[in-house]
């Protein structure tokens, strides 16, 4: 009888201990988290998508969690991850790979970058005033045109890829300036204003189709978008891991033909040292909130499972891998 009492006592203690550990684990799992997401400048697609992602997490993560957003740029967002000032960022996969490998515009390799999901693709669009008489990139060189151009902010993917496009046609920024042209490192908004005041001939960048600013500009100015030839497309894709895309003539009233170009893949990246369970929940939240995200911005309507895990070569975080394996799209 004494042995039975001892056995029962130990059994009760064991059960209570298991219950305590289970409750502790559940409590820990539901502990509020603090996340800072760095996106794009106010008013653009990146800003809307960033807020959409943040709201998805607010609706899914434990009550009391703090999910805040801050503006940023493609190039600086990955620096923020490396330094730990942001937990999640939006960025171009090609830029992330440059950061990981220490290529331009970065001075050394970054080790704290992992991908969670692909978000959307954006085509490279080179918008130019028709009155320049320029119909393709070869015209710029053959005419040694004094082009006043804005490739967007210096150091981001859009600016870097613009000069690479120029190089495919036999010139670069310095050549352009020797011809009497000028490069302006401005945002879309600033560049549009310069074009309206006849202080700029062209601008370029990667943005959704149709881009509202271009539609509005076409209401007062005759503009077009320059196509890339197959050689340039293949070379850029090989160097940056981008993909070929065709902007249909139907996308803009001012286009008379389809425009072949390249597209950049935008991803949601995170600090490599974020806990696996947290990244798992973040990935699951985005997956489960796809319908909501599609209502936030049209670019997110293509957010399907196979697309999500295609992050342009940027290694997935272990938490994301765990989720994609769970739903059967990653072996």
Which H/E pattern describes the elements?
HEHEHEHEHEHHEHEHEHEEHHHH
Measured by DSSP, the beta-strand proportion falls in: 15-25%
Strand tally is 10
What is the count of DSSP helices, taking H or I runs of 4+ residues?
14
Topology:
Layout lengths: L1 H28 L4 E5 L6 H14 L7 E5 L3 H10 L4 E5 H9 L11 E17 L7 H6 L5 E3 L6 H12 L4 H6 L3 E2 L4 H9 L5 E5 L5 H7 L4 E3 L4 H11 L2 E5 L11 E13 L4 H13 L1 H7 L8 H4 L9 H9 L5
Parallel strand pairs: 1-2, 1-3, 5-6, 5-7
Antiparallel strand pairs: 3-10, 4-7, 4-8, 4-10, 9-10
Helix pairs in contact: 6-10, 11-14
Describe the structure.
The chain has helices spanning 2-29, 45-58, 74-83, 93-101, 137-142, 157-168, 173-178, 188-196, 212-218, 230-240, 276-288, 290-296, 305-308, 318-326, and strands at residues 34-38, 66-70, 88-92, 113-129, 148-150, 182-183, 202-206, 223-225, 243-247, 259-271. By secondary structure, it is of the alpha/beta class. Strands 1, 2, 3, 4, 5, 6, 7, 8, 9 and 10 form a ten-stranded mixed beta sheet that branches. Strand 1 (34-38), helix 2 (45-58) and strand 2 (66-70) form a beta-alpha-beta unit. Helix 6 (157-168) packs across helix 10 (230-240). Mean pLDDT is 92; it is low at 20-28.
């Amino acid at each position: 009888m004494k042995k039975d009492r001892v056995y029962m006592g130990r059994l009760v203690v064991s059960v209570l201990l298991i219950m305590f550990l289970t409750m502790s684990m559940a409590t820990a799992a539901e502990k509020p988290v603090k996340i800072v997401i760095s996106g794009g400048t106010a008013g653009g697609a990146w800003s809307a998508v960033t807020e959409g992602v943040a709201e998805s997490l607010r609706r899914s993560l434990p009550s009391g969690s703090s999910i805040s957003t801050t503006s940023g740029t493609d190039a600086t967002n990955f620096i923020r991850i490396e330094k730990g000032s942001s937990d999640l960022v939006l960025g171009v996969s090609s830029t992330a790979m440059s950061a990981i490998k220490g290529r331009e515009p970065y001075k050394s390799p970054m080790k704290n970058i992992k991908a969670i999901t692909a978000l959307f693709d954006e085509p490279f669009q080179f918008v130019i005033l028709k009155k320049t008489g320029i119909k393709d990139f070869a015209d710029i060189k053959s005419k040694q045109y004094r082009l006043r151009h804005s490739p967007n902010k210096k150091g981001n993917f859009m600016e870097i890829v613009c000069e690479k496009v120029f190089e495919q046609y036999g010139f670069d920024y310095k050549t352009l300036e020797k011809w009497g042209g000028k490069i302006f490192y401005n945002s879309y908004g600033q560049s549009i204003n310069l074009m309206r005041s006849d202080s700029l001939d062209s601008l370029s960048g990667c943005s959704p189709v149709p881009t509202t600013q271009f539609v509005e500009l076409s209401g007062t100015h005759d503009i077009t978008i320059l196509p890339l030839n197959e050689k340039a497309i293949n070379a850029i894709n090989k160097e940056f891991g981008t993909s070929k895309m065709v902007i249909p003539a139907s996308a803009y009233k001012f286009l008379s033909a389809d425009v072949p170009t390249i597209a950049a893949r935008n991803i949601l990246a995170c600090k490599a040292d974020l806990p696996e369970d947290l990244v798992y929940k973040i990935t699951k939240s985005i997956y489960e909130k796809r319908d909501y995200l599609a209502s936030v911005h049209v670019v997110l309507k293509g957010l399907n499972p196979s697309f999500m895990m295609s992050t342009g070569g940027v290694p997935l975080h272990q938490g994301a891998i765990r989720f994609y394996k769970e739903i059967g799209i990653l072996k």
